Amino acid sequence: MKLKYLNWLLILIITGACEKENGNDLSGFDVKTDGLTFKTGEEVTFRLSGNPAQLAFYSGEILKDYNYKDGRVVEPGSIQMSFSSRVQYGAQPNQFSVLASSDFNGQYNIDDIKAATWTNISDRFTLGTDANFIYSGVVNLDDFLVEGKPLYFVFKYVYDPSAGLGRSWYVQNFSLQSQTELGLTTLIDQSSAGWQLIYYGPKEATGRSSISATAILLRANAANTAVYTEDWCISKPIHVSSLDVGPDWATPIKGYSDMRLTEYKYVYTTPGNYRATFVAANKTANDNEEMVKYVDITIVP
Q1: Which residues of 291-301 are buried (b: 16+ CB within 10 A; e: fewer)?
Q2: How far apart (Å, rounded) are the C-alpha atoms in residues 102 and 119?
Q3: Exposure of 101 by Cβ count < 10 A (0-12 exposed, 13-18 middle, 19+ buried)?
């Protein structure tokens, strides 16, 4: 019995010694650099002491920041809209307009659409004047943001037989973007805007106005009949709100089976102040140690 006890004691001692030898003790872990200011594109060398079993690196950049390891919520920023348009045939003026609303109830029928408050924002954009596509320019629409309400956009086409022959209007490359801490984020584009065509008046629904994944075509009835009509090409609801993008992630740079790591090199491409963070860990069946070390560095152009 005594011999059996001694054998178990010896095994425990050897196991503990092996764990320490393999880096189970984090007390010697540290991180240093040769300076605190570096240039974009320059290798930053992080000198590592100690020998943790596992090591992970957060650069401090967006989506790689230890401060957001438990999750990141991105607040909405300024929104901006753009598209391209062109026009052909006919002579009727003022047929095409761009509208925005934050009080449309989302019921896609002409009565509910007309009951909403639509603001004509056509004069904020550069519109096509001939058969060549013209870029609208990028237009800020922050003044239409209403807390808790979605935005809707309409490309409206009016045919008034008393004003001349109808024209053919084309729209492509629609984009609505938001400027956030993650950069310029696309909220919807031409193919994802969920456009629907709703008509007022006796409109030919086949072979005239149409929507495809890449373009919108708005035009009068084939015979330009003497009947007033409207085409409402309306987007899906666009919610401009906080976005939970989940946690920022580290880059694993050492695992249990890897050799001891004495340095780690990283290149920053954007000027700014960053907190480079190293997370050392020894996680075994009997242990769950973790140590965090960081270096505040400045990256200049």
Answers
A1: eebebebebee
A2: 10
A3: buried
How high is the pLDDT of residue 36? 96
Of 259, 248, 275, nearest in space to 46 by CA: 275
CB 56 within 8 A of CB 293: no
187 contact partners, CB below 8 Å, separation of at least 6 = 79, 176, 177, 178, 238, 240
pLDDT means per 10 residues in the chain (301 residues)? 40 42 71 96 96 95 94 86 97 96 96 97 97 97 90 97 93 94 87 96 89 95 84 95 85 93 96 96 80 96 96
Q: How far is CA 22 from CA 9, 16, 30, 282, in A?
A: 20, 10, 17, 9
Prediction pTM value:
0.69
Helix (H) or strand (E) holding 21: helix 2-21
Cα–Cα distances (Å) from 277 to 61, 152, 242, in that order, read 11, 43, 27
Note the pLDDT of residue 56: 97
Q: How many CB atoms lie within 10 A of CB 224?
A: 15
Structure tokens at 285: 């069946």
Report how far residue 263's alpha carbon sits from residue 248's, in angstroms, rounded to the nearest whole number: 23
Question: At 39, is the secondary structure helix, strand, or coil?
Answer: strand
If residue 20 lies in a helix (H) or strand (E), which one and from where to where?
Answer: helix 2-21
Contact 237, 188 (CB under 8 A): no
Give pLDDT, residue 210: 96
In DSSP terms, which residues pair with 252 in a beta bridge? 56
